[in-house]
Design brief:
The chain is built from 15 helices and 13 strands. Strands 2-5-1-6-7-8 form a six-stranded parallel β-sheet, sandwiched between helices. Strands 9-13-12-11-10 form a five-stranded mixed β-sheet, sandwiched between helices. The longest helix is centred in the N-terminal third of the chain and has 16 residues.
Length: 350
């Protein structure tokens, strides 16, 4: 048995591809398990790695979460410094427990390949330790993204563990043709395979209102029943009402961020396609705003940060797949079937 190690940066689609491949391989008759050596927690209220929670439920895994994810690494993980040999020993022991009785294990990488490199627990080192086949997820924002992908492939090759292939994931529609016609050929010219190009899809890429709330906290003043709405865009209502109207009308399914004292902007936003209204500064809005939000059933969230801090925190929010989110789970499998050479991936690990 070989393992598949899915590497990539934050937001590159590691979870989506891991989910799709795991379910697809399960449907092909293989016993599949999931393992994540280095996990992370997101949001102010979460204390468990969400990928592990998701895969434990989808794959009906019996092992406890602390076995599926033996380590959680935050930005200050060295404060709890552990002996490297002991850390590897614990990861190996947890992996063997998860792998027992299964045909293959899909291993999820940390937010970035370099995380915990100080302790020799970075992705390349773990790929070697767990005798895994690496698959790299490419998040395309611009040409620099391809440079980064080639750098990682070069590094892995130098380490003696060449990447099985690369998957361009969540590719924005305007970049699809460039990805197929320019990025992919350049990657191939360097000797690195492309195993899939997955277009961006709002079902998988757009965070839900509740995911913003998990990061921001605050008070829900209205629309709590619609926290599952997708947020496809954000608009900052810090301009005059005349200027704001143009932006508000052009953006659909958006989150509007404005001060609690800007009732004019808030009321205008509620008359357009708005998924959530986020009021900053801890300033309670006019009762008319709350009443209109209730009427429109739009989530109205009051946070105690200033607008700048709120935007900064929101920029870290990414779409999280939940086991009960049937549309998103179904989409992960469809993406694998339609856009990924999954048969070659399977052949490489069986």
């Amino acid at each position: 048995m070989k393992n598949l190690y899915i590497m990539g940066t934050a937001g590159s689609g590691k979870t989506s591809v891991a989910t799709g491949l795991a379910l697809k391989f399960s449907r092909e008759g293989y016993r599949v398990a999931y393992f994540k050596p280095i996990g992370n927690v997101t949001g102010a209220f979460l204390r468990e790695d969400e990928d592990a929670v998701l895969m434990k439920q989808l794959l009906n895994m019996k092992q406890p979460l602390e076995t599926i994810v033996p380590y959680i690494a935050g930005p200050s993980y060295l404060s709890g410094y552990k002996n490297t040999c002991e850390s590897l020993k614990n990861i190996r022991k947890a992996y063997e427990t998860v792998a027992d009785g299964n045909d293959l294990v899909i291993i999820g990488g940390a937010n970035f390949p370099h995380i915990m490199g100080c302790l020799g627990l970075d992705a390349p080192s773990l790929v070697q330790e767990l005798e895994a086949v690496p698959l790299f997820m490419i998040k395309i924002n611009n040409d620099y993204s391809l440079d980064h992908a080639i750098f990682i492939n070069n590094y892995m090759k130098c380490k003696g563990i060449p990447v099985l292939g690369n998957i361009f994931h969540n590719v924005p529609r305007p970049l699809l043709a460039k990805t197929e016609g320019i990025y992919r050929p350049i990657l191939e010219e360097h000797g690195y395979h492309t195993l899939g190009i997955i277009p961006s899809n709002a079902v998988l890429t757009s965070p839900k209102v509740k995911e913003y709330y998990e990061v921001l906290g605050g008070e829900i003043l209205a629309g709590e029943e619609n926290m599952d709405r997708l947020v496809e865009d954000t608009v900052i209502g810090a301009m005059t009402i005349e200027s704001a109207l143009g932006y508000l009308r052009r953006s659909a399914n958006k989150a509007v961020i404005t001060g609690g004292d800007r009732s004019d902007v808030a009321l205008a936003a509620l008359e357009t396609s708005t998924s959530a209204l986020i009021l900053t500064g801890g300033l309670y809005p006019d009762v008319k705003v709350v009443a209109r939000a209730e009427e429109k059933r739009v989530p109205l969230i009051l946070v105690h940060y200033d607008t700048y801090s709120t935007i900064e925190k929101m920029s870290k929010v990414t779409r999280r797949i939940r086991a009960k989110d049937e549309a998103a789970v179904k989409m992960t499998v469809e993406n694998i079937e339609k856009h990924v050479d999954w048969r070659n991936v399977l052949r490489a690990i069986i």
